[in-house]
């Protein structure tokens, strides 16, 4: 009656059959998370410039034929895309804040010390797709005067680097739903006092103002560029045309443990 697809090649095969296809996000998202203690990532215009530099359509095509991925900005599984690819925007946001290029790399004096925009990006060496994405990010960002040094490490080594604050960026998968747990946001998004105030405001919400406070936090995450979204993975559910009620896919998570409650036939 129905089955799930994760592959472009299989999708081409079912086209000849009499099925409906519904796409939904399965929760897996890829983000660039930053070190809020980094003297580079902690600067807002640097985060903005990195985001403007990313052509996420090109990155997605590097990993897939794009059928199974969508662009994402922030840790809400369905959200607007407010930061779009804009090479002029990347340059302008740095130039307007006093950054200048030396040997093709932006830099400026910050609190009495010269800061060159050379950032360290950690990526899992054993994840081929993440390595491809990291290399594409490096290529795109360096065109706009921000150098990226990729360190391909094991997960254990990445954890050690994060514990030592020895990184600027890390490329990571997270699994989220439509309404992320506040503890998730607190762990990854709370990069400065502006964001922290909105998180506390949401934690102290009443039923009357919780919707407004969620929106306030979401807008602040956009404004502060707390994390840099890359893409969210999609799954296709393929089902016979006479089956009704699959227009709304928000409930699809009930199928996560399908095999534990019914017999699933694998072919």
The number of distinct helices, counting runs of at least 4 residues, comes to 10
Radius of gyration: 21 Å
Structural class: alpha+beta
Helix proportion range: 25-40%
> Any low-confidence stretches, pLDDT <50, length ≥5?
251-265
> Got a strand count?
10
3D shape: globular
- Biggest pleated sheet: 7 strands, mixed
> Span between N and C termini?
14 Å
SSE blueprint:
Blueprint lengths: L1 E4 L2 H7 L4 E16 L9 H10 L2 H8 L5 E3 L15 H9 L4 E3 L2 E6 L2 E4 L1 E7 L3 H15 L4 E7 L1 H9 L5 E7 L6 H8 L3 H11 L6 H15 L3 E13 L17 H4 L6
Parallel strand pairs: 7-8, 7-9
Antiparallel strand pairs: 1-10, 2-9, 2-10, 3-10, 4-5, 5-6
Helix pairs in contact: 2-4, 3-5, 7-8, 8-9
Please explain how this structure is put together:
This protein has 267 residues and is α+β, with helices and mostly antiparallel strands. Helices cover 36% and strands 26% of the residues. Strands 1, 2, 3, 7, 8, 9 and 10 form a seven-stranded mixed beta sheet that branches. Strands 4-5-6 form a three-stranded antiparallel beta sheet, with no helix packed on it. Strand 5 and strand 6 (113-116) form a beta hairpin. Helix 3 (56-63) runs antiparallel to helix 5 (128-142). It is globular, with a radius of gyration of 21 Å. The two termini are 14 Å apart. The model is unreliable at 251-265 (pLDDT under 50).
């Amino acid at each position: 009656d129905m089955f799930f697809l994760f592959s472009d090649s299989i999708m081409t095969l079912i086209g000849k059959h009499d099925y409906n296809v519904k796409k939904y996000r399965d929760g897996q998202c890829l983000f660039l998370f930053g070190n809020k203690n980094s003297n580079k990532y902690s600067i807002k215009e640097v985060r903005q410039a990195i985001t403007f530099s990313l052509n996420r359509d090109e990155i997605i095509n590097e990993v897939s034929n794009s059928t199974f991925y969508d662009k994402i900005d922030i840790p809400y599984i369905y959200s607007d895309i407010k930061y779009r690819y804009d090479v002029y925007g990347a340059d302008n946001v740095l130039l307007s804040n006093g950054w200048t290029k030396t040997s093709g790399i932006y830099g400026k004096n910050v609190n009495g010390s010269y800061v060159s925009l050379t950032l360290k990006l950690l990526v899992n060496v054993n994840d081929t797709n993440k390595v491809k994405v990291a290399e594409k990010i490096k290529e795109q960002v360096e065109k706009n005067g921000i150098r990226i040094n990729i360190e391909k490490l094991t997960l254990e080594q990445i954890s050690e680097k994060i514990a030592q604050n020895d990184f600027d960026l890390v490329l990571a998968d997270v699994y989220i739903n439509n309404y992320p747990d506040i503890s998730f946001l607190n762990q990854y998004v709370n990069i400065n006092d502006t964001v922290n105030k909105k998180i506390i405001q949401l934690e102290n919400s009443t039923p009357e103002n919780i919707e407004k406070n969620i929106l306030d936090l979401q807008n602040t995450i956009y404004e502060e560029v707390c994390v840099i979204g890359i893409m969210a993975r999609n799954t296709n559910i393929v089902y016979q045309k006479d089956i009704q009620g699959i227009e709304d896919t928000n409930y699809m998570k009930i199928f996560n443990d399908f095999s534990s409650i019914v017999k699933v036939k694998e072919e």
